[in-house]
Amino acid sequence: MLLPFEQLPAEFRCEAVRKYYDILKNKKRSLVIKRVFDIVLSIVLLIILLIPMIILAIIIKLTSKGHVLYIQTRVTTYGKHFGIYKFRTMVENADKMGALVTSGDDNRITGIGHFLRKYRLDELPQLLNVLKGDMSFVGTRPEVPNYVESYTDSMLATLLMPAGITSLASIKFKNEDRMLETSTNIDEDYVNIILPKKMHYNLLYIKSFGFRNDLYLMLKTVKEVAFH
């Protein structure tokens, strides 16, 4: 779970991270409950959603060329790299054709991709990431390594816990793609404008971390997606 502070990667052993580390150190029980909950719920949901996920996979395969799953390198606990699983919502090799984040009018998004993104169905395969321990249901959304390289010392504190499928920042910035529609440099504007604002909420999450707060954020996410 939470490593001793002295065993953290060197870049984490700073005062900006220590402040948040001490908060989590006093909530070890909640961290254990969080992991047990992640394992149990991810197994249950994978069983319940297996057939719908197979149907979505077939539709994706029949409506556009390319693999059903899109696997991208992201960053999770203590800076560890992992492959995040998503249903493919863009044309094959889209990451080589433009910015790493997308705007609402991005022509790389497929027809079925717009639907999957609207209801966050593209993230269903991340249940496997949760089961493996690379992610949690609630936590900072995992960024690509290029963006993590721009983190300030305090932002590194968000990597003390597993990346999440949803978060307070995800809810606040659910229309992030629309915010970037008029951008002339999406990657630069994301790093300099949007990312710092999201990190503000991610750090607030650590300060208020608790199992009940996680349940609240999960239910709020379902509500936001259902009434999008």
Query: Helical percent range?
Result: 40-55%
Query: What is the count of helical runs?
Result: 10
Radius of gyration: 17 Å
Looking across the biggest beta sheet, what order are the strands in?
A: 1-2
DSSP E strands, number: 4
* Class computed from helices, strands and strand pairing: mainly alpha
Relevant terms:
single chain; 228 residues; mainly alpha; two-stranded antiparallel sheet; 10 helices; 4 strands
Describe the structure.
- This protein is mainly alpha-helical and 228 residues long.
- Helix content is 49%, strand content 10%.
- The chain has 10 helices and 4 strands; from the N terminus they run H-H-H-E-E-H-H-E-H-E-H-H-H-H.
- The protein has helices at 15-25, 28-48, 50-63, 111-118, 126-132, 145-148, 168-172, 176-179, 186-207, 211-226; strands at 69-75, 81-87, 135-138, 163-166.
- It has a two-stranded antiparallel ribbon with strand order 1-2.
- Strand 3, helix 6 (145-148) and strand 4 (163-166) form a beta-alpha-beta unit.
- Helix 2 packs across helix 5 (126-132).
- It is globular and about 50 Å long.
- The mean pLDDT is 92.
Structure, briefly:
49% of the residues lie in helices and 10% in strands. The chain has 228 residues and is mainly alpha-helical.
Mind sketching the topology for me?
Layout: H1 15-25, H2 28-48, H3 50-63, E1 69-75, E2 81-87, H4 111-118, H5 126-132, E3 135-138, H6 145-148, E4 163-166, H7 168-172, H8 176-179, H9 186-207, H10 211-226
Parallel strand pairs: 3-4
Antiparallel strand pairs: 1-2
